[in-house]
Specification:
Elements (H helix, E strand, L loop, with lengths): L3 H12 L1 H31 E9 L2 E5 L2 E5 L4 E3 L3 E4 L4 E6 L4 E4 L4 E10 L2 E11 L2 E4 L3 E10 L5
Parallel strand pairs: 9-11
Antiparallel strand pairs: 1-4, 1-6, 2-3, 2-5, 5-8, 6-7, 7-10, 8-9
Length: about 150
């Protein structure tokens, strides 16, 4: 009976060095592509903190300096600024069913949102102008839920 090492050496000689190099290169490329695909999936699935719900009218999402038309089901990410059009009502549904509703003409940045299990640990919404209404379940012990306005917190 031959050892695995001996069998591997015989296989390498049979296949040849050039073919073995090609196989190693192909495997390397496959691993690199799988890693990139995982990274892209991770970015889109983890970065989303909630989903937009457009009840009436329309809204835009300002993300990384680019404005995107908001639609129902659109993922909302940390540091997004939501721009609500006149005669519009929009909500963001977060983990655990927490909800923030924004009225017409509102402009709100989601500055911070962290969880401890299903409970909100820390949340900060910066409202530049407009109106906000929120329904928040349990807040973790020591946690905060803040709405900052130009004149108060």
């Amino acid at each position: 009976m031959t050892s695995p090492k001996t069998r591997l050496l015989k296989t390498m000689k049979a296949v040849g060095k050039k073919k073995m190099k090609k196989i190693i290169i192909i495997l390397g490329i496959a691993i690199a592509l799988a890693t990139i695909a995982f990274f892209l999936w991770f970015q889109t699935s983890v970065a989303s903190i909630g989903n937009l719900q457009v009840f009436e009218g329309s809204a835009d999402i300002l993300r990384d300096g680019n404005t995107k038309k908001g639609a129902t089901g659109e993922p909302v990410k940390l540091h997004d600024t939501l721009l609500i059009s006149p005669e519009s009502t929009v909500a963001v549904v977060f983990k655990g069913g927490n909800l923030v509703r924004l009225e017409e003409g509102s402009q709100v940045e989601i500055s911070e949102l962290t969880y401890e299990g299903e409970k909100v640990k820390n949340a900060v919404f910066k409202i530049r102008f407009g109106r906000i209404w929120s329904r928040v379940g349990a807040v973790a012990q020591g946690g905060t839920f803040e709405v900052e306005t130009p004149t108060s917190v």
